[in-house]
Amino acid sequence: MAKAEPGLPQAQRFLMQEVQGPASPADLAREVSSPEQAVQVYTAARIAVDLDGEEEHVFLTALAAQLGIDGSLAAHIDAAARSASTASAQGRRAGGKLGRAAIEQTRLQVGWRPPRTR
Fold first, then answer.
1. Which residues lie below 8 Å from residue 34, measured CB to CB, with a gap of 6+?
2. What is the pLDDT of residues 22-79, one digit of tens each?
């Protein structure tokens, strides 16, 4: 396994580390300090993860449990993510504009806000 190089920008080092050893649901949950942040983390994970197989489903179920997200909220976020994914695919065929709009609509529906910078 290759190690992240010290000369790379911080974001690139972070991404390389995550690809080499992704965080577990427990690791992610430990970094969350509020219910709002928990919803943001779950929403970001759900948008990023395609439910292609059992492993992805298990990961998201465990993440929701670790974050204290109940089944109805998780189902709402899942439905919004599926809707955004479908609209995003349609948007790619339509030149990309529809996809970005669908993602923004999903973010608004679930109350996602970008993390505050320090």
1. none
2. 788 999 899 899 999 999 889 888 888 877 888 888 999 999 999 999 999 999 998 8
Sign, CA dihedral 39-45-50-51, equals negative
Torsion of CA 82, 108, 74, 83, to 10 degrees: -10
Question: b/e map of 20-36 (b: 16 or more CB within 10 Å)?
Answer: eeeeebeebbeebeeee
The one-letter code for the residue type at 115 is: P
| pTM greater than 0.85 | no
Closest CA to 32 of 10, 53, 63, 54: 63
What secondary structure, in 3-state letters, does 59-110 show? HHHHHHHHHCCCHHHHHHHHHHHHHHHHHHHHHHHCCCHHHHHHHHHHHHHH
Note whether 31 and 49 are within 8 A (CB).
no
Rounded-to-integer distance, Cα 49 and Cα 60, Å: 8
